[in-house]
Amino acid sequence: MKLITILENLQGVKKYHQLTWNELVNELAKVGVRSLGKGRFGQVFHKSGWNYVIKVFENDSAYLEYVDFCINNPNPHYPKFIKKPLNMHQFHVRTHHAEKMMQIVKIELFEKLQDNWYAINIAKLYNLYCGKIESIEFRKNNEYNISEYTNIEDVYKDFQQYQIKGLMEAIDMIRHNLPEYQLDLHSENLMQRSDGTVVLSDPIYDSTSPGGMLNANMDFQNRKIGW
Question: Which has the closest alpha carbon to 173: 126, 113, 225?
Fold first, then answer.
């Protein structure tokens, strides 16, 4: 049973309206739909046998814009969204300032990023790519000596084992098409497919947004997964 169907069923049963978000998550776990992690704006769920995940979130304008952008601009380094987000009225116990609606979106299933090299270097690589910094330093092939690079093309040449060029172009497309948002390039917002392709799962944020909160007790520091 799909998560959205489960939530719709819960929405119609009064006893569930007295539950907090954490308690609802426990109800979902009873039918095999388990949380993969939570962040500032929402939570991601998966069930054994699904080749996708479901993200439930609220009040994340940057992510909604990113979903539309990815649907309209397919790229190997962008996630594939099965459908556009669906609005659903929140029915669980929540704080008085919480949003009335929550968003539900279906996304292809990813794996965790295996090579932390991307997380460590992607932001400074992009800064060199777009001319914000003049040079960066790397150890080439784990050698002791550090090499300095002033040209992104030289980085492409010496680090061909990484997907740098494609990622730089994909990030630049985001920056130019969604300029009102800030780039957020770190380990929690990078994932990969089973074939090793690195994906920009959630690379932007709205610096003016206070953040959504499906769960009044959500620990904003405990960001286990970058969805």
Answer: 126
User: pLDDT tens digits for 179-205?
Assistant: 999 999 988 899 999 999 999 999 999
Hey, CA dihedral for 130, 131, 133, 135, is it positive or negative?
A: positive
> What dihedral angle (degrees, nearest 10) is formed by the CA atoms of 28, 29, 32, 37?
100
91 backbone dihedrals φ, ψ, rounded to 5°: -125, 0
pTM above the 0.85 mark? no
> Reduced to 3 states, what is the DSSP secondary structure of residue 104?
strand
Q: Are 218 and 38 in contact (CB under 8 A)?
A: yes
Number of neighbouring beta carbons within 10 Å of residue 215: 20
Q: At what angle do helices 164-177 and 117-129 cross, to 10 degrees?
A: 60
* Phi, psi at 12, each rounded to 5°: -90, 0
Residue 226 CA to residue 112 CA, distance in Å, equals: 10
